[in-house]
Amino acid sequence: QRLLEDETERIHLCLGCRNMQRAEGARSALLHSHPSAQVDVLQVDTSSTTSVLRAAHEFRLRYNRLDYLYLNAGIMPNPQFDVKAFFRGLLSGQVISMLATGVGILTQKDSVTPDGFQEVFSTNLFGHFLLFRELEQVLCKGGLRSQLIWTSSSNAHRSAFSLQDVQHREGSQPYSSSKYASDLLSLALNTHYNQQGLYSSVTCPGFVMTNLTYRVFPLFPAFFWTLLMPVFWLIRLFTNTFTLTPYNGAESLFWLFKQKPESLDPYCKYHSLTSGLGNTYTEARKMDVDLNTSEALYEALLQLERDVRKKLEDQQKTYQSPKLWDNLEQSHTTA
Ligand SMILES: NC(=O)C1=CN([C@@H]2O[C@H](COP(=O)(O)OP(=O)(O)OC[C@H]3O[C@@H](n4cnc5c(N)ncnc54)[C@H](OP(=O)(O)O)[C@@H]3O)[C@@H](O)[C@H]2O)C=CC1
Ligand SMILES: CC(C)CCC[C@@H](C)[C@H]1CC[C@H]2C3=C(CC[C@]12C)[C@@]1(C)CCC(=O)[C@@H](C)[C@@H]1CC3
């Protein structure tokens, strides 16, 4: 919606969604407000490697150029709200930081996908990485610039992430770990791809009322959140991270669309913020990331990618099934 409202650009949108019914709903809503817009849909489930490879194949058949890839899909499954930690936080000097980041008051219960990956890691990070790798040829094309824009979070925290456990099999904060990993990966992608005209950035939409946040209290009806709105507007006087609406949350995603990518700082996260008076703006904040860790994560993801390709090739040989996508056998082993 924010992109289509920008009348200075004539854009062609492709919505990558796992649920086609919802995708068609989103498409119809966009066409209703922008009847002459070009909006396509493409089925993709970022938690499934075969779905990602199939979607990328379909994308390459349909289009020969991609300028912006918004990597937004994300989950925070089975969130557990730690009431004690919340009240401890309220009494401490850290209230604002706790409300802005949610660090320390939320844990999640993760599961394993049929591919054998942790679901949060696969959905929030690895599926996007694989999609990007598959779309490299349409992104890095003909000396033109292109941008990857990750929806990360201020919940991303170094303490939740471990290079020894990149999928976060062991801990109880897979969401924070996956978002910290996206911050690291973005830095590594800038190191490896800027020369080819590809730039990567991370954003945080702030605290937005969406299905993801409603699930924090699954037993409460939706109007519970509406009742809390005056409390949230009050909190907004003390922290600018309560953007609350998806429209406000998308501020930094749109802002990045308008920037020259080479002017962006690879060590910064771009935050959507809303002032006490309700004015929304974007602010760059330095991330707690370093080159060595980002490189190590990048290598680990490349290895996982090789494993996925090998497994699929073996499956195809065993069952002699026809190839579903054309460049599976292409070597992606060099980085
Ligand atoms: N809400 C907030 O306060 C914050 C959100 N974020 C991030 O913003 C992003 C959007 O979340 P938000 O809008 O809040 O949450 P929602 O749950 O409302 O939306 C998540 C979106 O991701 C899609 N999605 C989930 N899993 C997959 C998958 N496996 N394959 C393809 N699409 C998938 C969902 O599709 P479907 O419609 O089929 O469910 C949905 O459209 C996430 O990355 C989240 O981590 C970051 C900071 C704060
Ligand atoms: C009942 C109380 C009056 C209000 C409780 C509010 C909490 C449920 C929210 C306060 C800060 C919120 C928050 C998130 C989830 C819901 C809260 C903890 C996130 C963790 C959601 C996902 C993100 O990526 C973070 C940036 C959010 C940070 C703030």
UniProtKB/TrEMBL annotation:
It is found in: Endoplasmic reticulum membrane. It holds the Pfam family adh_short. The keyword Aminoacyl-tRNA synthetase does not apply. The keyword Kinase does not apply. InterPro entries: 3KSR/17beta-HSD, NAD(P)-bd_dom_sf, SDR_fam. GO terms for cellular component: endoplasmic reticulum membrane. Belongs to the short-chain dehydrogenases/reductases (SDR) family. ERG27 subfamily. GO terms for biological process: cholesterol biosynthetic process; estrogen biosynthetic process. The chain crosses the membrane at residues 216-235. Its EC number is 1.1.1.210, 1.1.1.270, 1.1.1.62. This is 3-keto-steroid reductase/17-beta-hydroxysteroid dehydrogenase 7. Keywords: Endoplasmic reticulum, Glycoprotein, Lipid biosynthesis, Lipid metabolism, Membrane, NAD, NADP, Oxidoreductase, Steroid biosynthesis, Transmembrane, Transmembrane helix. It is a single-pass membrane protein. Pathway: Steroid biosynthesis; estrogen biosynthesis; Steroid biosynthesis; zymosterol biosynthesis; zymosterol from lanosterol: step 5/6. SUPFAM superfamilies: NAD(P)-binding Rossmann-fold domains. One of its GO terms (molecular function) is 3-beta-hydroxysteroid 3-dehydrogenase (NADP+) activity. It catalyses: 5alpha-androstane-3beta,17beta-diol + NADP(+) = 17beta-hydroxy-5alpha-androstan-3-one + NADPH + H(+); 5alpha-cholest-8-en-3-one + NADPH + H(+) = 5alpha-cholest-8-en-3beta-ol + NADP(+); 3-dehydro-4alpha-methylzymosterol + NADPH + H(+) = 4alpha-methylzymosterol + NADP(+); 17beta-estradiol + NADP(+) = estrone + NADPH + H(+).
